[in-house]
């Protein structure tokens, strides 16, 4: 019995202690909440400790020159494949006519063996002279036959009058009838002679026409032969450099074969395909900066000399032709035909564009200041990342924005006038971070 009572008292003691502990804990929590609610807050610090300070730029439209880019392959505006216009053995190839060597306009390239062509000229010259001699003789014959015809006609007339007198005398019974027969025979002979002379004279125009046709044919052949003989000497039609010389001395050169290719380097042209929107500006004469494809820092400057009259409806582009003028004798740094080029066209006119410092653009995004409030209703500023589309880049100061900045990105889409873009203090700054905006210097709000 005594053990049972003792056990009950022990259990009762544990319960009392547990309840007492819970009461004390509840009193402590209540006291903490009371103290927190009635505490006196210290004045809010404005020092921004832990909040980074950044510089911002309020973007505004600025008049800038628009730019477009296009690709194209450079080509010489003065290049020619020199053909052999006649066939023959290559007799002469002067010293210095080699691949890559310079050549002046009019200089001898090669000489094709001219002997056969000279012999043909001599033969045709003789034929022309022979036909001309026949024509000259025909003119003499015509004169002689004309005289013979006149004499024959006169003789026929005389004999005819004599015959008429004899007949008249017979009619008066004073003539000899036999004499009529004699006179008639004489008239007949004279008439035949005159008729033959007329026939010979009438044949002369046809003979002359035939000889004249032969003469013209031989003269044409002679002119071709003289031209072919002249073509055995091949000279450089333009100044430039040899891309290739195809034949050596004593080799046979077919007619029409390319003897050499000469490329002039004084004027080089680059066709560039630009967006159709570029034609809204007056691009004729616009400056173009050309960059060669590959690891090179060399650039060239040209101007748009021509614009294609038709646009490419599929690619929505139009072709412009950029002309570069350079010293053909200065090989270092020359723009060579065949190089693949990137061309940047700068419009002569200006258009309002939103621009930001180039360093403010990272991975086609910029950080923009967004103003809001805290949970307690206090104003705050945060960095917000905004995607943008960069149309092109420009260089040079913009005094209305920041005269110290030289590299700018022209924004096509993503920003509006008045947006404040963070331009300094970007190191370690992440989207959503609280920020403090500088109040002076570059990028002041």
| Cα gyration radius (Å) | 55 Å
Count, helices: 3
Order of helices and strands: HEEEEEEHHEEEEEEEEEEEEEE
Shape: rod-shaped
Q: What is the total number of structural domains?
A: 4
Please mark out the parts with pLDDT under 50 across 5 or more consecutive residues, or reply none: 40-48, 441-445
What is the CA-CA span between the terminal residues?
90 Å
Measured by DSSP, the beta-strand proportion falls in 35-45%
User: Structural class, judged by helices and strands?
Assistant: alpha+beta
**Largest sheet, described in full?**
11 strands, antiparallel
Portion of residues in helices?
25-40%
Count of DSSP strands: 20
> What number is the mean pLDDT?
84
List strands and helices in order, with pairings.
Blueprint: H1 2-37, E1 53-58, E2 61-73, E3 75-83, E4 88-92, E5 102-103, E6 108-112, H2 115-171, H3 177-231, E7 233-235, E8 240-245, E9 252-253, E10 258-275, E11 287-292, E12 299-312, E13 317-325, E14 340-357, E15 365-373, E16 379-387, E17 389-395, E18 407-413, E19 420-424, E20 434-437
Parallel strand pairs: 1-20
Antiparallel strand pairs: 1-19, 2-14, 3-10, 4-6, 4-9, 5-8, 6-7, 8-10, 10-13, 11-12, 11-14, 12-13, 14-18, 15-16, 16-20, 17-18
Helix pairs in contact: 2-3
